[in-house]
Amino acid sequence: MLTLSAAAVSGACSEQEYEDLTKPEKVTGNTQYAPYTIDWTEAADSCSTAFIERFYCSENRNGYEGVFSYREYNATGSANSNNYWQQAHAMAAMVEYYNRIKATDAEEKARIEGYFQKWYDKRGNNYEGNQNWRGSTGFGNDFTDDTCWIIIALFQMYDATGNQTYYDAAKQTWDECVWPRHELTQSGWLPWKWSDLGPNECTNGPAAIAAATLAQYSRAAGNEEAAQEYIDQACTCFDQNIDVMASDGTLGSTPLSYTQGTCMEAGRLLWKLTGDTGYLRKAIQAGRGQMTSTRMNEVYNYEMVSRDEGTDENNSIFHAVMFHWFTRMILDTEVDSFDGKIRKELYDYLYRHASYYWATIDKTPEGWPEAYFGVKCYQPRSSMNGDVGGSLGAYTSAAQAIESMWMIKDVKF
Fold this sequence. Notes:
mainly alpha, 4% strand, two-stranded antiparallel ribbon
């Protein structure tokens, strides 16, 4: 072992200077995933403004305007033509940003409201050509699950702005284009699409959320009869999720993070509406399945992080959905009366992902303009990995995780 005498030390620098050189800088806060304490307001501002600038077509970009694009500045042009259900999750992240800034930045509030209206006018980029499936609102689609996601996005826009148009379109699309399809299946569950009547969890999870949301609105308006009808619809859809849930809380033969998230939220909402803790139990089981199952995660730095579920623009956005619904249960303090640990578990899992996203991305002035998040929270896209440019799905997932951290940063356990 090499040792230094006091004389040798004092000859190079003073005792205080030596202390300063050899002791690491003291930091405060949780620095487990980053070498500094993350300012979540600053991170959310930077991430969301870049997300909206790069992926929302605020002007004509290769033939598309008023909608989100698969690639940054719609670099791929016509490849954006079937980009529909992803619009809902990108919109959800933009709504989170809007809710955060609307009380303090009137100019930005007005700008984002203009983007909402453009998106609505373009019917969220709905490519469906069959007018019967589109319905009178123009938001219906062959894919039942896609239509459900758009309905949820419209409800989120309504909640954020109070614009009745968004609520009316969402409700009418559900009543006209979605719920009638349950009559096409023997089980009464909603089919994946008109042209494929097999029910699945990716459809009935968001459908349960949409119906439960309508029940909440109806009850708030004093219409208990309508509320009960929508509760019954939500329960029917949620039964499908229960039917495919494994003992570890995962759903289906190939469980995916977004179906875990929707099952969580659907169960939580039904518990709030009915008081039946059985629904909350299933919601929590789905949440723990996401966080602990080896089918859902990989091990990174000795902890679970959500696995790479695919780089295409369908799969790469799954994490955004999961983070969005995790946040709602974390914020619901009433859950503690049933399970006093789950909210902290969800918080830690979300914190881990958001921290890795922000700590690993290049934030230097030179690197930030070309920096893009990857499908793994700890691995940004780079030419070294064969990834060039951005991905709507991956960036939406990061933006949602970081906006979610802003929402829960002051939660105490």
